[in-house]
């Protein structure tokens, strides 16, 4: 067994500490305490008499030499490599972040958010292009179209959503009619509640609220499904066997959202009008026949066109945002939740931005 680690102080040699024995965890003994108690000048640390050196011993010698500004001699090749690794790992770790002025921190966070937003937007545009390329490829080779998967997505996105979309739209119609009647009663114009309900639901709220509901329901499902498949390497396996994930996973979901959104939007608008009609009948005493006749007079056909034009665009945005975020999942299961949340937020934000753009555009066309 090697001797216990020890050192001698050779003051005649310009303040040299000569170490001997086994500088390892098992044989280091009281050497750390003795070194801490040493207060003389040390210019050189000689390790030529050391039998064995491990990481603990190397760290002890490195810290002692660094504290006394001494050089280390007498190392063989292995010991020198170990000392270099220990020295490279000796980095100061900030236990608490340095104080940053509030203005600097806020500006930095805003800058990081802008960079992240621009990066995500570029990625989304690239994913949109990849989806378009996949659609063109399927059109050129119809046998690669996933008919069963697309029909299944029709059911998931459209048919299964009829109940919640209908309930939401009916209640929105009731709320619009009730609040509109309360405000218009001040001017003796309760009859114009019909105009309010008909135009705002058919032109704006019917499609917009349906898009928000689909984003929260189907967009999140797309992100979670693709994210889980990405995490379990199913998508990599599909690529390995020559199946395109864009054609088999993304395209059916996108087509389903584009096709079903106009139908759901129209359905939501009709149900919202029915809800408004029920409230007008019960609260204002307007018969259903009168309500329907008035709706036909005050709601122009262009309002229907506006809703039907916006709906497929909203559907495409929701599907692409959900699939894009799902395909970005990496490393761990937490990413699935984060990307699902990001998909819903991103889809709703883009839908509202596009809705504002459409409002200006259709006003410019004279469809008011």
List key phrases describing it:
alpha/beta; 4-stranded mixed sheet; 12 helices; 368 residues; 4 strands; Transcription Regulator spoIIAA
Quick overview of this protein structure:
71% of the residues lie in helices and 7% in strands. The chain is of the alpha/beta class. It has two domains: 6-89, STAS domain (Transcription Regulator spoIIAA, 2-Layer Sandwich), CATH 3.30.750.24; 126-365, no CATH class.
Describe this structure as you would to a colleague.
By secondary structure, the chain is α/β, with parallel strands linked by helices. It folds into two domains: 6-89, Transcription Regulator spoIIAA, CATH 3.30.750; 126-365, no CATH class. The chain has helices at residues 31-37, 55-68, 77-89, 102-140, 147-157, 162-184, 193-231, 234-240, 245-284, 288-298, 301-327, 334-365, and strands spanning 6-10, 16-23, 44-53, 71-73. A four-stranded mixed beta sheet has the order 1-2-3-4, with helices on one face. β3, α2 (55-68) and β4 form a beta-alpha-beta unit. α7 runs antiparallel to α9 (245-284). The longest helix is centred in the last third of the chain and has 40 residues, at 245-284. It is elongated and about 115 Å long. The relative contact order is 0.09.
